[in-house]
């Protein structure tokens, strides 16, 4: 795999960049391949997305499909207008094997069982992330720590985690509230009606749409047929994670709650490690879904948060009103949020600035560009702090959750009084300097 990735990167230097986010327990690199028209640097205003495969080492189909996907994208760039558009407007980061040590001890033809599932220390990597609902006391592993650091450095808008052993697109939440903890954390108030399964996020409509986007483009998954007798069948090939079975320390919930990244778990094969001869069939079944899913990063709202002088405001806290899992701006002031068509209010907070509440409309045909100008707060109006976030659980930053009831702001946020916020002349100059 390492040889293949290096060879591909050297053959396609204008479309690929290879980097390692860390090493496994046994010292194998955790390689990530960027495929994009701008592989070496972020394209301002354009989203970063990712796929992570093989976190269970014996679930091999996703790992192989990621290598096929890389080849397909670079080979199609000059001939397929849709692929060209995707790579011109998106940076795609692909981690083919999060658990290379586990893969080394797993065996082709083993459809079930746990041989190779865990990392070299015997840890299940999909139970090793911080969890919002329940304290996760499992010792952090190098593979998970590398992914956590990676996710903190790049503001991913959309993500897919590739697994095997079932045929379904599973969406957050993977875990359910714990009543003791829920008394002290604001997010759980959202779930008082969902004390048991399913465990739905404030963005349930978006997650269902993302899951259906994948399953409906997959000729087998979309039929929702059970893998074998005694295993569940999933209507339309999708499920809420906790409704299927609850788990603590999962990667998709971590991505969403901590960093506002929409992640869906994609179970791609009934057999975890099928014979290599079946790979062409799996590639044909998943090819369209893998591409169409990533393109969903271009749905909803995106834009910039700037100050009065047109300078970007980094780490401004944003949330869509009524959807209390927040997200932040990048160092360039950029933000993205996947939303279905409708009318929304965006709340924007940043230290030292008056909060804003901006109306926006999302349409089906293209993402809405929304640029927000923040005005400085006066020293004595106590508007320096953005809303408090949920209790910090485990290492890393606090969850990017903002409670409706925990905001210290007593003044009503300044409204833009229109669908789109005004763009200052300074911001126009900023865009002109970058985009010409």
From TrEMBL:
GO CC term, one of those recorded: extracellular space
Domain Peptidase M14 residues, every copy: 1-297
Extent of Low complexity compositional bias: 399-409
Keyword check for Transferase: no
Annotated GO biological process: peptide metabolic process; protein processing
Residue ranges of the region described as Disordered: 381-417
Record-linked Gene3D superfamilies: Carboxypeptidase-like, regulatory domain, Zn peptidases
Active site per the UniProt annotation: 267
Keyword annotations of the record: Carboxypeptidase, Glycoprotein, Hydrolase, Metal-binding, Protease, Zinc
InterPro entries documented for this protein: CarboxyPept-like_regulatory (IPR008969), CARBOXYPEPT_ZN_1 (IPR057246), CARBOXYPEPT_ZN_2 (IPR057247), Peptidase_M14 (IPR000834), Peptidase_M14_domain (IPR050753)
One MF term in the entry's GO annotations: zinc ion binding
Essential cofactor(s): Zn(2+)
Similarity comment text for this entry: Belongs to the peptidase M14 family.
Protein name: Carboxypeptidase M isoform X2
């Amino acid at each position: 795999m390492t040889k293949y990735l290096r060879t591909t990167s050297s053959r396609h230097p204008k479309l690929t960049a290879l980097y390692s986010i860390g090493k496994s327990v046994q010292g194998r690199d955790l390689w990530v391949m960027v495929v994009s028209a701008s592989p070496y640097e972020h394209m301002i205003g354009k989203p970063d997305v990712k796929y992570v495969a093989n976190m269970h080492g014996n679930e091999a189909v996703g790992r192989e499909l990621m290598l096929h996907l890389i080849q397909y994208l670079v080979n199609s760039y000059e001939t397929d207008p849709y692929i060209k558009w995707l790579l011109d407007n998106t940076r795609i980061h692909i981690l083919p094997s999060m658990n290379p040590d586990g893969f080394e001890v797993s065996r082709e033809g083993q459809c079930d069982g746990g041989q190779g599932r865990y990392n070299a220390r015997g840890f299940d990597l999909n139970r090793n992330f911080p969890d919002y609902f329940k304290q996760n006391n499992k010792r952090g592993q190098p593979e998970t720590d590398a992914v956590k650091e990676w996710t903190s450095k790049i503001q991913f808008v959309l993500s897919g985690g590739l697994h095997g052993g079932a045929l379904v697109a599973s969406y957050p939440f993977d875990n359910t509230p714990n009543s003791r903890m829920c008394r002290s954390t604001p997010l759980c108030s959202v779930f008082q009606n969902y004390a048991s399964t399913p465990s739905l996020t404030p963005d349930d409509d978006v997650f269902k749409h993302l899951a259906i986007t994948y399953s409906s483009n997959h000729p087998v998954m979309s039929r929702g047929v059970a893998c074998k007798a005694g295993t569940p069948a999933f209507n339309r090939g999708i499920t809420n994670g906790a409704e299927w079975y609850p788990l603590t320390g999962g990667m998709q919930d971590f991505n969403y709650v901590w960093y506002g990244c929409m992640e869906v778990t994609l179970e791609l094969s009934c057999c975890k490690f099928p014979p290599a001869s079946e790979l062409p069939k799996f590639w044909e079944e998943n090819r369209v879904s893998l591409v169409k899913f990533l393109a969903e990063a271009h749905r909803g709202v995106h834009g910039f948060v700037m100050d009065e002088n047109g300078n970007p405001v980094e780490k401004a806290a944003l949330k869509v009103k009524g959807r209390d899992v927040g997200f932040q701006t990048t160092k360039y002031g950029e933000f993205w949020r996947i939303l279905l068509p409708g009318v929304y209010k965006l709340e924007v907070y940043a230290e030292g600035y008056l909060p804003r509440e901006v109306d926006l409309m999302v349409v089906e045909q293209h993402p809405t560009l929304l640029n927000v100008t923040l005005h400085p707060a006066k020293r004595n109006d106590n508007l320096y702090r953005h809303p408090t976030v949920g209790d910090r659980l485990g290492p890393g930053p606090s969850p990017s959750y903002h409670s409706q009831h925990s905001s210290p702001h007593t003044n009503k946020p300044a409204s833009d009084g229109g669908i789109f916020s005004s763009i200052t002349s300074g911001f126009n100059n900023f865009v002109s300097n970058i985009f010409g």
